[in-house]
């Protein structure tokens, strides 16, 4: 005969689990397991990158890789690499917030400054503002391009906020090009399709209002300098050559920055050879933009971001949407930063609880507010006051787990992992774009919600000192993004990339 006490305890255990399972089902929790995360990270760190293969791709496409695939050899383990990335991300957010705060302070002190600032941008639309808006680059994905007639393989860092496409370009100033680890330096003298650009004959090649660009009357070249806050400087001149799409061997001619003089810093590591600018074209009446979508005349481009510990490449494609499903957000205009991709985020829901916010506060047309998609940001940033509300709702929805005091690292909301490696449950987060309906919903689960670090699970969102919101790549990993600038739409296709 069974022990009655044992049966009673078993019954209580079953009832408790059924109650919790019902709660999970009712309120949409997801489960996460540190053992599987550790296995995936271990496999990632041990992967032989010589075995990388291009993914199946549509026409007009490049392969896209997470930059950590190439840089993991610099670190002892995945944890130290992640800690480094988070520190980089925090420094970038701090810098960007200071730049925006300076602009907003000027607007506050001078009521006419905002109008003058926007009018100055408008005045330069036909010159296309061809440089990045801030002197800080940081990114998490690279695209493989084939350059010139020799089809030289080069990885370029993807930057959705930059206008300029540039790469290292031989012949370099002696000892001024960094040695690539995985690329061959493009040589303009061996490319039969290379063409210099005459800025005297065609003044639109140079940006007369930007002191970083100048037209040299003697050589007739448009020289530029790009300085970055992390210590890097690149100098060169504007030129033209063909690029080849590996997917179907189609070629297109583009203008690019031929960078012949690099000053090193922490980010010129040799993993990538330059920047692939994907920013929005500022004016439909402009004669041409220097961002790649503008130069290709493509109003549609799609970017699939591999998950953080994935060795599988994805792709960047142009001219056609590769996915037939997704949630559509509207791209909004912002006069002060017209090159960035603002979206109409409406509400955020954690389980069944709406995080309270005035929808107009997230309106991208309210010049100093809005929600931006930014490939240079890792962890999504909310304005400080909103983040506190968001964080507190999340904490209320986490059941049966004790939050550690003081947080961990840069994160303030962290929970201990189960010591036996059992599954842990956290609430699903839902973003709604435009309105509060299921068809306008983007579900965030797993690593898009919490980061596994230091033996803890930490809420993967951060506050920052600005009124705008940055949606970063940690929340976008594994999601297909289709940008349609003609129809002012951005479609999120969840789990399309892995």
UniProtKB/TrEMBL annotation:
It comes from the Eukaryota. Gene3D superfamilies: Acid Proteases (2.40.70.10). Signal peptide: none annotated. One of its GO terms (biological process) is proteolysis. It holds the Pfam family TAXi_C. One of its GO terms (molecular function) is aspartic-type endopeptidase activity. Belongs to the peptidase A1 family. This is Protein ASPARTIC PROTEASE IN GUARD CELL 1-like. It comes from Nicotiana tabacum. The gene is LOC107770558.
């Amino acid at each position: 005969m069974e022990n009655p006490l044992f049966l009673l305890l078993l019954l209580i255990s079953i009832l408790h689990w059924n109650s919790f399972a019902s709660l999970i089902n009712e309120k949409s929790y997801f489960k996460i397991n540190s053992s599987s995360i550790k296995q995936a990270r271990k496999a990632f760190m041990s992967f032989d990158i010589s075995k990388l293969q291009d993914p199946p791709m549509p026409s007009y496409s490049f392969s896209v890789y997470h930059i950590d695939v190439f840089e993991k050899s610099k670190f002892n383990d995945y944890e130290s690499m992640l800690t480094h990335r988070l520190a980089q991300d925090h420094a970038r957010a701090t810098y960007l917030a200071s730049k925006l705060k300076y602009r907003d302070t000027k607007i506050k002190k001078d009521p006419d400054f905002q109008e003058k600032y926007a009018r100055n941008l408008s005045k330069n639309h036909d010159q296309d503002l061809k440089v990045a808006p801030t002197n800080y680059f940081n990114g998490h994905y690279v695209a493989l391009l084939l350059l010139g007639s020799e089809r030289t393989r080069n990885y370029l860092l993807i930057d959705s906020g930059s206008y300029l496409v540039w790469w290292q370009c031989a012949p370099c100033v002696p000892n001024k090009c960094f040695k690539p680890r995985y690329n061959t330096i493009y040589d303009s003298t061996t490319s039969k399709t290379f063409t210099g650009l005459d800025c005297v004959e065609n003044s639109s090649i140079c940006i007369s209002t930007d002191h970083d660009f100048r037209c040299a009357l003697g050589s007739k070249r448009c020289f530029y300098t790009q300085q970055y806050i992390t210590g890097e400087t690149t100098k060169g001149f504007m030129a033209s050559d063909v690029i080849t799409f590996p997917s179907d061997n189609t070629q297109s001619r583009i203008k690019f920055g031929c960078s012949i003089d690099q000053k090193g810093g922490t980010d010129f590591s040799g993993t990538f050879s330059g920047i692939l600018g994907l920013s929005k074209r500022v004016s439909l009446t402009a004669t041409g933009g220097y961002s790649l979508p503008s130069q290709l005349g493509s109003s549609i481009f799609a970017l699939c971001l591999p998950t953080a510990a994935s060795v599988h490449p994805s792709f960047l494609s142009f001219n056609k949407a590769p996915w037939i499903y997704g949630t559509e957000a509207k791209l909004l205009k912002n006069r002060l930063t017209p090159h960035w991709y603002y979206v109409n985020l409406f509400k955020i829901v954690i389980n069944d609880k709406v995080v309270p916010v005035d929808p107009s506060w997230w309106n991208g047309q309210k010049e100093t507010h809005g929600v931006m998609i930014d490939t240079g940001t890792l962890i999504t940033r909310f304005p400080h006051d909103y983040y506190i509300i968001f964080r507190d709702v999340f904490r209320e929805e986490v059941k049966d787990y004790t939050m550690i005091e003081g947080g961990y690292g840069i994160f303030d909301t962290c929970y201990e992992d189960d010591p036996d490696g059992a599954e842990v449950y956290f609430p699903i987060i839902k973003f709604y774009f435009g309105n509060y309906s299921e068809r306008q919903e983007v579900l965030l689960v797993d690593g898009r919600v919490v980061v596994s670090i230091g033996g803890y699970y930490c809420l993967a969102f951060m506050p920052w000192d600005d009124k705008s919101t940055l949606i970063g790549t940690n929340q976008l990993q594994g999601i297909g993004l289709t940008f349609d600038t003609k129809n002012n739409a951005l479609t999120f296709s969840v789990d399309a990339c892995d």
